[in-house]
Design goal:
- This protein has 188 residues and is an alpha+beta fold.
- It has one domain: Jelly Rolls.
- Strands 1-2-9-6-11-5-4-3 form an 8-stranded antiparallel β-sheet. A 3-stranded antiparallel β-sheet has the order 8-7-10, with no helix packed on it.
- Strand 3 and strand 4 form a beta hairpin.
- It is globular and about 45 Å long.
């Protein structure tokens, strides 16, 4: 049912070079999802029921409820061994899907330089609108205010990143208007 879409995502991973800068290992993606997935997401995203995001309850961010059809479909796609194996080969690490989210970041949402929870081995984020929003930036340390690389917020673009003690990242700036929407996949 999703075989062409799964192959497309795996090829996006395979063709994107692995980058290692300042002890952070990552990939940058463009044109990551195929038309079939994009059309499905675009047709459903504004109707998704949302819930508060664990560990960020006091922040203006929510995630799509996992019990909805689109979220179940995305779980099937991103749990497929073809995608997992493409990431495993690229990063030379064994992975299992932990969660698949669609995040909704509202006005005033900001996330300063941080490292993800140690239970996450790899994260993958794809931006889902053409609106102007902050991208994700990479820092050398928690104290840094100047970033050394950026994943600009552009439709169907994003990144994957190995989570280590050095993988400091955050938002380029505070969300100013509208809703910053993205697909976020965690691997353990």
């Amino acid at each position: 049912m999703f075989n062409d879409s799964i192959r497309f995502v795996a090829q996006s991973i395979e063709k994107s070079p692995l980058i290692e800068k300042n002890n952070i290992v990552y990939q940058k993606y463009q044109n990551f999802l195929d038309e079939k997935i994009l059309n499905r997401v675009e047709s459903k995203i504004d109707m998704l029921k949302t819930v508060e995001l664990e560990r960020q309850i006091k922040l203006p961010r929510q995630r799509a409820d996992y019990n909805q059809e689109l979220m179940r479909e995305l779980k099937i796609i991103f749990s497929h061994s073809t995608i997992r194996k493409a990431l495993e080969k690229k990063y030379n690490i064994k992975l299992r899907v932990r969660s698949i989210d669609i995040w909704f970041d509202y006005k005033d949402y900001v996330l300063n330089s941080h490292v993800d929870d140690e239970s996450i081995k790899l994260s993958l984020q794809i931006y889902l609108t053409n609106d102007q929003h902050p991208g994700t930036v990479l820092y050398q340390s928690k104290q840094d205010t100047e970033y050394f690389d950026i994943f600009p917020y552009q439709f169907n673009c994003g990144y994957s990143m190995l989570n280590t003690k050095n993988s400091y990242h955050g938002l380029e700036y505070t969300v100013k208007t509208g809703i910053r929407k993205s697909l976020y996949v965690r691997f353990k």
